[in-house]
Amino acid sequence: MRVPPMRRASIAVVVLAALILAVPGGAAAAQGASGDRPAVRMARPSWDTGWFQAEVYRLLLERLGYRVDGPVTMGNPEFYEAVAAGEVDLWASGWFPLHDSYLEGVDSVEVVGTQVDDGALQGYFVDAATAGSHGITNLGDLADPAVAGLFDHDGDGRADLVGCEVGWSCAATIDHHLSAFGLTGTVEQVQGDYSPLISEAIARYRDGRPVLYYTWTPNWTIGELVPGRDAVWLEVPFPSLPPDQAAALDRTAIAGIDGCADDPCQTGWPPNDIRVVANSDFLDANPSVRRLLEQVVIPLEDISAQNIRMVQLGGDPQDIRRHAEEWIEANLAAVTRWIETADPDAVALDDEAGDAAASGTLRVAARPLPPFVIYEDRAYSGFEVELVRLVGAQLGMEVEIHAVDTVAKQIDDIARGAAQVGLGGVAITGAREEVADFSVPVLDSGLTILTTSDDSRGLDDRILSFFRAVASSDLPWLLVVFGLAVLVAAHMIWWLERRHNPDFAVPYREGIWDSFYWSVVTMSTVGYGDKVARGTRGRVLALIWIALGTLVFASFTAAIASSLAVSELRSEISGPDDLPGRRVATVVHSAGESYLPSIGVGPVVVDRVDDAYLLLSEGGVEAVVFDAPVLRYHAAREGAGEVSAVGPDFQRVQYGLILSEHDAELRERVNLALLDLAESGVYGRLHDAWFGAYG
User: Fold this and answer.
1) How many CA atoms lie within 13 A of 510 on its CB side?
2) Alpha carbon of 586 to those of 367, 607, 611: distances in Å?
3) What are 517-565's pLDDT values in tens digits?
4) Helices 459-471 and 536-570: crossing angle, nearest 10°?
């Protein structure tokens, strides 16, 4: 790939324009700024699998006539302290009994309504293949070092259990379980950024390797590794919970769980209700809100389905909002009833607010997408990772990276100050510019085409290519002409020779077959001589047929040779002009999905680029169209020898670092640092190190 490096002049122009247009951001608007209409200060959890529900509640509150500030993202302790102090009004992500300890001794907070009743489950899982072959059904089975060794991926002799992030309530429960069940010597809870850790586990599963992990519902992981099909629940040896959850000990055995050896299944975790938590004074002052919150129910299956969609589509903020709007429309009858019960005179309002923060450490939210961001062995690398570390060095700041699954999560982390920079091959688009800011482009690339290498084409593929070439050539029509000519000649020779030539039997059924045979061998000039014309008129016909037949047969032979040549030529794709008429895969919501229909290609759309690679290797498609850096990186590494990126790049795509709309100072410093790196030649060397090898 020849992705041109950032040119000094063009970067200088863009940076200067950014500096001229930059205006320092202000704080969020104060509540009540729009007349007497009340505002709701809403929060949402730091796990993005709870954002769909937050968006639904935001829309409901707006339909009720309230302006909603936020929702602002908070961790559990932060939210419960803020809602008790009256700094925020509510959120829709209370998990009970898991969050019971946060409410102990607090009188200013109430739990309202039940969004999900007894349906939020948690537990331990192993892949079904390993469980079946080794008889693993219980977490206690991992006390056996041989069994635990099946899941030891770091070589320390203990099973690697993908657990919870430090600070999550579930992390303490997992540690309690490992201690209570005597497993600390054979099992370790692997902690870190949950998203890349569980993604690594799923990748191991797809490679046919054993996996051991903790997860919960609703969550997208259940859609990737389906209990009862791909994975099985592990029961625990006996009920045991930390002291703050001891009252729920009799609820850890749950009936009707798919993928568990027993029914009820002793999961070790009580089912949780997902409920709204709100400030009591706020509810007393806004009884219509209380009445609304008491009614709302969101089915668990709807939440799970949205979580899967969010992760598969990349999860831009507008995607999550759209999912919530679609849910509202699909459940309009219930929504209308809730609103009318809460306040028959409710009028919807629309408003949004945001906030931003910054600190001395350059906090980075990274979305893994090789070669931009690579997460391996719990370490980050990649073109943009190295670039942002260089930027941090230019700014004299420490770089701290954490992983996220979606673009929406990156933008939210930046808006609430949990991160200042987002990266991971994020294309600069108009829709994203509406909700976030970008640095100057850090890479100017485009789309490219990935195909199977010639050496990897099997016999089946070549035969299929030949028949496709035949079907699109003149050969089918020549076959029709050839058959008609032979048939006419056969009838003529039989008619002329049937009465005096024993080589052509008089009965039509016998004679026409002999005549057909004579017509073919004579036309092909093989002429075995076992059947010959004896009469004068028959011999004249034979001479004429030999001359004409030679031309027909030669044309037929040439058409076959041409089709073979065309088959080989058409098996090669060298650019976009070769794509029409072929099966081409691309990724949903990508530039490729927008581009391919414009050239007459109806693409096979997949959720992840890895799915497109699989289709290509299995022959389900003939090419993949996607971002050039991603495809060329794959072709040079995992797909080396099997696939090739072909032709020049097309359909320009620019990538940038996501920055806050409200921190003009940091944006200016980052852009100047990028300019310095380009002027000094450091950027060029970094670019060539990542892209020059396969450029």
Assistant:
1) 7
2) 19, 9, 9
3) 888 777 766 655 677 777 888 788 878 877 777 776 676 666 666 655 5
4) 120
Among residues 39, 37, 43, 38, the alpha carbon closest in space to that of 55 is found at 43
User: Token digits for 186?
Assistant: 């054979």
Q: Are strands 122-127 and 231-234 parallel, antiparallel or unpaired?
A: antiparallel
Strand partners, 120: 272
H or E stretch covering 174: helix 169-180
Pairing, β 399-403 against β 362-366: parallel
Nearest C-alpha neighbor of 576 from the set 469, 692, 446, 428: 446
Three-state DSSP class for residue 440 = coil
* Low-confidence spans in the chain with pLDDT less than 50: 1-35, 347-359, 456-457, 566-571, 694-695
- SS3 category, 619: coil
How many whole angstroms separate alpha carbon 535 and alpha carbon 620?
A: 60
| Residue 233, CA distances (Å) to 138, 153, 228, 258, 265 in order | 8, 21, 8, 8, 8
Which residues have a Cβ under 8 Å from the Cβ of 610 and sit 6 or more positions away? none
8 A C-beta contact, residue 149 and residue 209: no
3-state secondary structure of 605: strand
Helix-helix angle 317-330:51-63, to 10 degrees: 60
Determine how β-strand 109-120 pairs with β-strand 187-190: unpaired
Half-sphere exposure of 411 (CA within 13 A, CB side): 22
Whose tokens are 């990649």? That residue is: 382
pLDDT in tens, 256-282: 999 999 999 999 999 999 999 999 999
C-alpha span between 162 and 210 (Å, rounded): 12
Q: Residue 610: which H helix or E strand, with range?
A: helix 609-618
What's the maximum distance between 2 C-alpha atoms anywhere in the chain? Answer: 120
Q: What is the pLDDT of residue 7?
A: 37
**Residue 351 neighbours by CB under 8 Å, 6+ apart:** 34, 39, 62, 67, 68, 69
Helices in 419-535 by DSSP H: which ranges? 430-433, 459-471, 475-497, 508-523
* Residue of 47, 448, 111 whose CA lies nearest to 280: 111
DSSP string, 620-641: S-SEEEEEHHHHHHHHHTTTTT
Cβ atoms within 10 Å of 523's Cβ, excluding its own: 23
Instruction: Report the alpha-carbon distance of residue 335 to residue 476 in Å, rounded.
Output: 62
Q: Which residues, in sequence order, are CB contacts of 23 under 8 Å at separation 6+?
A: 664
Which two tokens mark 373?
A: 């961001």
Closest by CA to 160, choosing from 168, 174, 144, 148, is 148
CB 158 within 8 A of CB 209: no
pTM score of the predicted model = 0.57
What is the SS3 assignment for 33?
A: coil
Q: Please compute Rg for the chain using Cα positions.
A: 34
DSSP letter string, 230-253: TEEEEB-SS----GGGGGGGGG-E
